[in-house]
Amino acid sequence: DTGVSQNPRHKITKRGQNVTFRCDPISEHNRLYWYRQTLGQGPEFLTYFQNEAQLEKSRLLSDRFSAERPKGSFSTLEIQRTEQGDSAMYLCASPAGNTIYFGEGSWLTVV
Amino acid sequence: AQKITQTQPGMFVQEKEAVTLDCTYDTSDQSYGLFWYKQPSSGEMIFLIYQGSYDEQNATEGRYSLNFQKARKSANLVISASQLGDSAMYFCAMRGMDSSYKLIFGSGTRLLVRP
What average pLDDT does the segment A3-20 reach? Predict the structure, then answer.
């Protein structure tokens, strides 16, 4: 158990629907990262937060994607009007010293 | 730009033998960190080992060691005494020292341990 929890673990949705993923990071750690991993690839950085401030967004994060971290605790990643290309695993990560811990990931399948 | 290269898409190793998974990196940063993660079929990314660019000793964590050759820009993972449970995807990653500290990952190596 890394102390980073994500839910839901699996989500199947129809194209065009909205989905939201939640991440609860290691408590009292002020940084939180979102990554996306498609089949056969390594994870790719999407965005990160320092407390409640979203400090960087990747080009991968189109305007259909929005991430929030109210009060600097848990974070949500919402995808609006999902497309089949959004099918991937969405990973949340929380650093602790020189170690970066990942959650178990949220698998998204868009049909 | 930073880049991680893992040239072995797949590897086999006999149970109880040692195996080396290759990783080379490219960066212009003087200070950086290198990581290895294990990803079983269930999907979670499991942290294995970390090496800082200024660390003089190679990092070790149990059966895992990182063969760090700075001049060659390589950070190979050595798994000793392979176990069946070591069968998984293995990812090498690098963190630069920009303010984001985000990780850049390689494409991974699938390791299969034979009984």
Answer: 96
